[in-house]
Amino acid sequence: LMIWWGWLAFNTSSNYSVSGQQWTEGSRSAVGTIMASVGGGMVTVLISRYTTKKIEVDMFIDGLLASLVSSTAGCLFYTPWQATLVGAIGSTLALIAYPVLEKAKIDDPVGVIPVHVVGSVWGMISPALFVCRDFGLEQHKVTNENDLSGLLYGGGVTLLLYQLAALGAIAVFSAFSAFTILWTLQHSPIGLRLSRLDEELGADLREHGLAGVNVMAYTIEKKLTAKTLSSVLMVILRWRAKAKLGAARRRRIADAGQQSETSKGVEMTRLQKRNVANTSRSPSQLRAA
């Protein structure tokens, strides 16, 4: 939900101005973003019910995010039904990409490729199909920089070629930047990858002591050997021992705090009794004492 609100703010504020009639661009972008997420959410629910017989929350979130990604490039220019269709198609393509990646044995546990790559590719292509230069009322007409329409509105392939060229430039820049950063990290003292054994066990277990999905499904992914089994057990036992020591230390600290509070209370009680006794004595008794 927080990502949805953030995406709505991002899309509606991308023109950086509300003066004059530019506030209408923000409102139109808001409608396009909301309708795209509605279309993507509805399609994701239907696909989830059809494939799993229930509504999978993680599938719903991924489909919703894919629809938001798909709407970003052209949310200003879409009519409500166009935005709904763009979001629905983006979610569908993203959900189709998941089994394709699994079949290709590409590890993508957080769904970056289906949501952000597939969604953004479709999001870059969709304006070249649906943009209409005559969209909007006459006093609030929205036109793109070159006054072009999309392929479905008689604009030909010019806008599509522009979008594909921009898509290619972004892909080359992103690939080069990512390769440079990752290659530098890999050859630095910090390093990039875990050891092979740690990768097989899973970073959740090795780094955090948590039995993640990789360990729970180990018999399915790879045959469990004596070496990996002993490593798993040793890691779990070590983290359990650390957890017990930490709990015992916290209990000792809490007990020490309670004892100090108790001793303070006893001392205060003694002082109070002494003060009461002193106040009950006469001045002559106090001088004699």
TrEMBL record:
Q: Where are the compositionally biased (Polar residues) regions?
A: 275-289
What membrane topology does this protein have?
Answer: Multi-pass membrane protein
**Stored Gene3D superfamilies:** Ammonium transporter AmtB like domains (1.10.3430.10)
Q: Where in or outside the cell is it found?
A: Membrane
What transmembrane ranges does the database entry give? Answer: 29-47, 59-79, 85-101, 113-131, 151-184
Q: Name one GO biological process term.
A: ammonium homeostasis
The record's region (Disordered) falls at: 254-289
* Cellular component GO terms, alphabetical: plasma membrane
Q: Where is the signal peptide?
A: none
The UniProt record lists the Ammonium transporter AmtB-like domain at: 1-211
Question: Which keywords, in A-to-Z order, does the entry hold?
Answer: Membrane, Transmembrane, Transmembrane helix
A single GO molecular function term of this UniProt record: ammonium channel activity
Q: Which PANTHER family match?
A: AMMONIUM TRANSPORTER (PTHR11730)
Provide the protein name. Answer: Ammonium_transp domain-containing protein
**Species, as recorded:** Haemonchus placei (Barber's pole worm)
Please spell out the taxonomic lineage of the organism that makes this protein.
Answer: Eukaryota, Metazoa, Ecdysozoa, Nematoda, Chromadorea
